[in-house]
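Protocol step 4 of 6: structure prediction from sequence.
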Amino acid sequence: MYKRILVALENARSDKTVLSHVSQLARLVGAELVLFHVADGFAARNFKQLDLAESEEIKADRSYLEEIAQSLRDTGLVVKAVLAMGNPPQEILRAAEVELCDLIAMTSHGHKLLADLFLGSTIDRVRHNTHIPILVVREPKKTQG
């Protein structure tokens, strides 16, 4: 069914949610995971145009991806880690095509309309511009305490 699953990660706590679902799915169907993160700070967005050195953000993102990838490899999964720089929705769409993925997995934060207007909705932009199926996993609500 699925051979390559692009997993859009944010380098945030919410990544655990999507990774727990997708790692189980990958085991069930024998799929390879393509862990994907878009560094989108100033240095990342202008990296090529301004011929910048890697920022601490970019280095931290690369290290994070490799750490997660290795932990999944240690469980027997086939995993590739890809770091991109720029606009998250555009880069997710590009990577899914380039990496020949047949599923895109993402985490939803459950923003309401007003928050999406201000914060943007990567999922919305991706879903309107791809033919590849998308698995959206809702981030658990934060508990107060």
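Step 5 (inspection) to follow. Residues 4-138 form a domain with the Rossmann fold fold (CATH 3.40.50.620).
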